[in-house]
Amino acid sequence: MFKTADRRAVPQRAGSEETRRMVLETALTLFRRNGFEETTLRDIAAAADLSLGAAYYYFPSKEAIVGAYYDYVQEKHVALARGAFETAGDLRERLRAALHTKIDVMQHDRQILRALFRYGGEPDHPLAWFGPATRAQRRLCIDLFAEALAGERLPEDVRDAAPVLLWTLHMGILLYFLYDSSTGQRRTRRLIDAAVGFVVDTRRVAVSPLLRPVRRRVLNILRDAGLLVTAEAANA
Amino acid sequence: MFKTADRRAVPQRAGSEETRRMVLETALTLFRRNGFEETTLRDIAAAADLSLGAAYYYFPSKEAIVGAYYDYVQEKHVALARGAFETAGDLRERLRAALHTKIDVMQHDRQILRALFRYGGEPDHPLAWFGPATRAQRRLCIDLFAEALAGERLPEDVRDAAPVLLWTLHMGILLYFLYDSSTGQRRTRRLIDAAVGFVVDTRRVAVSPLLRPVRRRVLNILRDAGLLVTAEAANA
DNA sequence: TAACAACTTTGAACAAGTTCAATATTTACC
DNA sequence: GGTAAATATTGAACTTGTTCAAAGTTGTTA
């Protein structure tokens, strides 16, 4: 039903990868300027100086281009965040870095992000937020949050769940970012700071033995629902 | 850019509303049987014994049909839930009713719900989850949760925020439902019961004066972000 | 270098959502 | 009953994502 978004498995010629990248760049430029819907594959092909069919040689579908963009985002995000972790002194700084760098990467690409979100609710789609097709990318991002938490002293149950929960928070923030029409998406930045501040300041309370029963109950519900595995399809 | 999903404002002839309903029924039947993507407007027109153009006379676009479906869902949901409230003894039963009836209405329509969710991330789209175009429907649903809470003794700050928060929970549950491939979506039912159980059982703790500072902080963050107004566009 | 295979490119054709000018039908009013 | 305005209906045409068979190009091997 859906085509996978991944690249061809066959060997290519010298300039091929370069052409592919050029098509991608061209497409993204047009998406940014005119929006995803508004940009035609004929536009892309023309701007890339290719025939329509040739564009399809490099990307099996229009959304595959968006898929490739998301690959890039994830890669870049991990790189930027890891870089920021180097000089980040404490948990607060690491969490802020993890979230802000994500927005940094996509600051000018809300148009494209919109196209990406479109398939979130279709479990079998290659771009589904929680689908199996995006598991690897999700994993990378979740691991990043695990890294941000690395030095923290946490009860075991919380330690397992926290990265997934932070990933969920991060998805919510992306959704907010999508709707955020404040100039430069300042409100999203503020929301990130506020949310991180809250998480950091209340982590002592959150992990206190007093709240253990409450915590336990929430985690059981989430685990039962299959939401802690890797936050993937509710039915693994 | 987008067409509104609402009905024509012009007066109609006697059978018109009936025909419109018939087109809607026909379309929904086909959507349910074959999926949204797989159902062609030509299929719909043929099944409704109309020409292609005539179908467009009743609905300005394919997604407008989904929009009309959602109108129906909301209406039905409110009716069912209110009915259930009549005989519901306590908060637990009212919250369960509010959530279960929503799933009841859409039990066999996950295909259609998928199409509906597709536009959630596009602020200006008539079907955007948090967009201005769906404000009225959102309002109805939020009010329903307010009703479920009616008899409860709650601190003022919580009272204002709770319905919106429950609505957000309800959106999350819909997303889960979308991905839930367990037979009859039993897992969604279980998740609802578990979530409601948790909310009801911990409401004493949640509103305790001890946690007031924590609560205050969360609410301030959400209010600052514009997420409590009616959970609409982050920038109202 | 010739021949072959693998990789690229092309443009025509197809499917499906959407538009629209033309036509048919109904209703309102005289 | 006749007629004009309003409402419904039609199907052809347009746009855009996608497919594909054919043709062009490049690298490899004998």
Please characterize this protein's 3D structure.
2 copies of one chain form a homodimer. Helix content of chain A is 66%, strand content 0%. By secondary structure, the first copy, chain A, is mainly α. In chain A, helix 4 (62-87) packs antiparallel against helix 5 (91-106). The longest helix of chain A is centred in the first third of the chain and has 26 residues, at 62-87. The two termini of chain A are 20 Å apart. The model of chain A is unreliable at 231-236 (pLDDT under 50). At the A-B interface, helix 6, helix 8, helix 9 and helix 10 of A face helix 6, helix 8, helix 9 and helix 11 of B. Chain A binds a DNA duplex (30 and 30 nucleotides) through residues 10-14, 16, 19, 40-42, 50-54, 56-57, 60-62.
In short:
The structure is a homodimer of 236-residue chains. Chain A is an all-alpha fold.
